[in-house]
Structure formats: C-alpha cells, structure tokens
Amino acid sequence: MAKDTVYSLDQVQLHNREGDLWLVVNGNVYDLSKFTELHPGGAGLLLAKEVAGQDATEAFFSLHRSDVLTKYDRLRIGRLAPDSDSASASATGDKSKAAPTLKKRKEYLLPVVGELSPVPHAEPDWLHPKLFSPYYRSSHHELRKSMREFFDSRVRDEAQEFELSGERPTKALVDLMGRKEWDIHAMRMGPGRHLHGKTLPGGVKGEDFDYFHELVVVQEMCRIGAPGYMAGLQAGMVIGLPPCLNFGDEKMRQKVLPDIFAGKKFISLAISEPHAGSDVQGIQTTATLSDDKKYWTVEGSKKWITNGHFSDYFMTAVRTGPKSLSMMLIERDDNVETKKIKTSYSASAGTAYVFFDKVKVPVENVLGGEGNGLKVILSNFNHERWVICCRIARYNRLIYEETFKWAHLRMSAGKRLIDNAVVRAKFAKMIAKVDAGQTWLEHITYQMTKLSYAEQSQALAGPMALLKYYLARCGREISDDAVQIWGGRGITQGGMGRLIEQHQRTFHFDTLLGGADEVLADLGVRQASKRMPLASL
Ligand code: HEM
C-alpha cells in the first residue's frame, strides 16, 4: 500500500474491529490490525469505539511522545483526505475547537532530525533566528548543525536503549566518532595543539577551534538525553586525559593520544578512593620507588571511577611519600583489576572500583614531576567544572522542553495542564533558570577565550565554582517542578516521561561531580572574600 494513498474518514471507519483496525493520527492513516495485540498500552483502548476506525489524534497525543510515530512509521498506510481533517478532528465531535488544536500540534510536536526545536526557549537564544549574540561566528553555527545531525541520527536511538539496558556504547559508534571526518573525541578536549592542522566538522579549522566550539559539541551531545550512556562515551577521557595533554612529554603524547582520539583506547581519571572523595589529601594509594629508580610500584584502590571498567589507562593520584602526592599514568595489565559499581545512573558509564596490586609504573609516567600531583589535579579543575556546567545547562533546558510540550498535550479535568496558573508559574521559574544559566555560562566561556590557562585559574576559579553550584541547584529545582507536572510518568522508566524519570534519578551526579554544591559555593565565597579590599570597609 502506497504511503501517499488518500483515504476518506468513511473508508477508515470501515476498519474498526479486532484483526482489521485502522485509525488516524495527525492526518495520517495507520493500519494497526497486526499491532493491536503488541501495543504496549493494551489492545482494549485501541478497540474502543471512539478510537477504532476514528481520528484518534487527541487520545494519541495525550499518551505518547511524538517519536512513537517516527518509530512506527511502518504502520502508516496513507493520509486522511484534507476535507476529513477538521470534520473528524476530534472524536468528541466538537469541530470548532479541534481543528486549531491539531494544527498547533503538527507545528511543534514532530521533531525533525537535525532541525532546531520550534518549542519556545528549547534552544539557547544564540540559535533564535531573530536574536543576536556577540559570541558565536558562522563556524560555531556550522559546527552545531553538523553535531545536531550526527547526534540526532546516529546516537540518540542507541543512547536511549542502552541507558536502560546498561550496555556500553558500541565500538562501531565510538570508532565513528573518532574518524577523521568527525574527530569528536579530540574536539571534546577543547582548544589546543592536538587539533592543529585538522579540518573539523562544519569546516572549522583546528587552529580556530575555541571554547565556544567545545561548548557547542558538549551541548549538542547532551540533547540525546541519556546521562549515564553519555558518561560511557569517553567522559573518562574528558577528565583523565588533560594531564597527559598539558604535562606529558612527546613520547607519552605519541603513544597515548592517537589511540584515544580514534576511540581505540579508553582512559579514566582515578582520584577518589573509599576514604577520599573531593578530599584529595586523604588519598591512601601508595607508590614505592624501585632501588634502581626506574619504576614505581603502586598499591591501593580507587572508587567511583567513570569508565574505569573498560579503561586501558588510569590517570592516577598516588602518594609517593608521606607528604608527597603525584599523578601518574598507569596502563592496565594483569595486576590491575576493575569491578563495576552499580550507581543510580546507567551502567553504560562503566563506573568501577579499580584495584592496583603491586603494579609497576615507569618513572617517566609521572606527570608534572614527583610531588606535584595537587598542582596537576588543580590545573584541570576549572575546565572539568566548565564542561559539567555546559552539560547541566543544556540538560536542564531539555527537561524544560519535554515538560513544556507535555503541558500542552496533557488534558486534565477538561483543560490542558498549561491552562492552569499554578503550572505556568512553574514554567516561569524553569525558563528564568535555563536562560539565566546559559547567559552566565556564555559570559564565563568568553572570559576563557581571552585568558591564558593560568589566568583562568586565578580569575575564574571562584566564578566557575559558583556557576556550577548555581546550575546544579537549578537542575534539582527544575527536576522537582518537572516531576510534579508529569505526575506518575515522571517516575516511570520508559514511556513518555522517560527523560524526566532519568533526570530525577541522576541529577545528583551534577550536584556532586567536580565538587559538591556546598564545597563549590564556599569556594566561590572564599575567593571573593580574598579579593575584598580591606580599605573599602
Ligand atoms: C499509531 C497508533 C499507535 C501506536 C503506534 C502506538 C504505540 C505505542 C507505544 C510504542 C507505546 C509505548 C510508549 C513508549 O514506550 O514510549 C504506547 C503506549 C500506550 N498507548 Fe499507544 N499507540 C498508538 C495509538 C494509541 C491510541 C489511539 C491509544 C489510546 C486511545 C493508545 C494508548 C496507549 C497507552 C495508554 C499507552 C501507555 C502509555 C502510558 O501510560 O504512558 N495508543 N503506544
């Protein structure tokens, strides 16, 4: 049956029973005869007389996400004749009201792969066709287009499936992201000489790649809405590789970088331990220097290591003396063992315990010099926190978008959720938070494009800590409001509210990772207090 066949409502109505069931959704005719028994929402609802052989658009959209239609496009057999559209728009028979509602839904509910969302505030303002931004050039726009197409069409389905199943991202995808034409792993490490000489997606020259390009890559990636899976996609690299980039010698760079950027090998940052979290001074993993001073022998264990379960390298903080902390690159061998830890987000992330049992590490693998571990760790904190900020800001917006759509679909007590003032008040808070958060993030990103790495550590450590604290608090509050609007679906895995459920289960990662909210808030205020000119009192 050709999919462009046009049917009248009378024709559709003839197919209204078990084994011969058609219905209309959004102007398209579906043959559900063989699907009725497989329907996750049950057969009974489809066979009800208001649904079977009728235009079920209203009923459909108050119970499904629009991507169900994309996924089940194979069931579509044709279109409803245009003159049937408004005549049959609602099974309630209220023709005057039904037509505009349907029109509106067509406009914003069917997402097009690679396109901008038409939902107001669902995209940051720099993507608004009528607004201006001082920060983004055409290369940022081109890169964004290319990243959106990539993540929408090649990553989203796998991400959604694996977020629930806990499988790690497929090798095929990780390899693809590492290919020359995409170079996504390398771009995620931010600007630097590792990108020089390359032409990146959207035609961006590696030398011109700046923090706004990096922001674009991170934020486009977040839209797939699968936090644990996303962590499985080389999050360990983002935090574990910088010491190698910034302190590694040429030999180490040549050995490690190409395989990681190609997606052939994985690295993770191994700092936290059962007895030491953000408190790095409490680290107990020790390294003893051999008599010939050629290698260190490492013993101890690490906990909550993102990607640890499948990492080939561990950028590890170890005690090399009672008062000496060092950072070293440890390659997996038979004396390194990893064991998965179940966390509240997806096992895709490969979060693990790492056990080092007398592992021999060449002295050349110490980064930044023996005893300089803290300096190496601190030098990376700003960038790590900034990446987390990019992620939270975009994820918060996604949760808002999903919820705003839902509030326009869901009918309760005869009206849409959005028609209730109490619901609109929640959206006022959400929109203010997502737009303010992004604006502050862009302001700090701009400073990063102007300051050297060392200057950033000086001038931005406090503001960055406060920004991360702010965005993570917003994430918590947005999650709370979203769940209240979604009701039971906000706490149900799978189905329409799946992103909301994921978020309310996982937003705490953002309130802890890269420094707990309380620690960062205090850091921001202490930094400000240090700059306080006493003469002004
Ligand atoms: C083209 C027609 C339809 C297709 C392809 C379809 C497909 C699906 C799918 C795939 C789900 C699982 C949702 C998910 O996991 O995201 C679902 C759930 C459901 N469907 Fe349908 N469906 C159709 C029409 C309808 C209609 C017309 C009704 C009601 C009159 C209905 C009622 C439900 C219900 C109650 C659920 C459970 C959703 C929940 O409670 O969150 N479906 N459907």
Task: Describe this structure in a few short sentences.
Helices cover 47% and strands 15% of the residues. The chain has helices at 9-13, 43-47, 57-61, 67-71, 82-87, 95-109, 138-165, 171-178, 184-187, 211-222, 227-232, 235-240, 242-247, 250-261, 373-409, 421-450, 453-486, 498-512, 517-530; strands at 6-7, 16-17, 20-25, 28-31, 76-80, 199-200, 204-205, 267-270, 286-289, 295-305, 313-321, 324-331, 336-340, 352-362, 366-367, 411-412, 415-416.
Instruction: Tell me roughly what share of residues is in helical segments.
Output: 40-55%
Structural class: alpha+beta
CATH-level-2 architecture of the largest domain: Up-down Bundle
Number of strands: 17
| Sheet with most strands: strand arrangement | 1-5-4-3-2
What composes the largest sheet?
A: 5 strands, mixed
Strand content: 15-25%
Please state the average pLDDT score. Answer: 91
Shape: elongated
CATH class descriptor name of the largest domain: Mainly Alpha
Uncertain parts: 86-108
- The radius of gyration computed from the alpha-carbon positions, rounded to a whole number of angstroms, is 26 Å
Number of domains: 4
Give the names of the bound compounds. Answer: protoporphyrin IX containing FE
Number of helices: 19
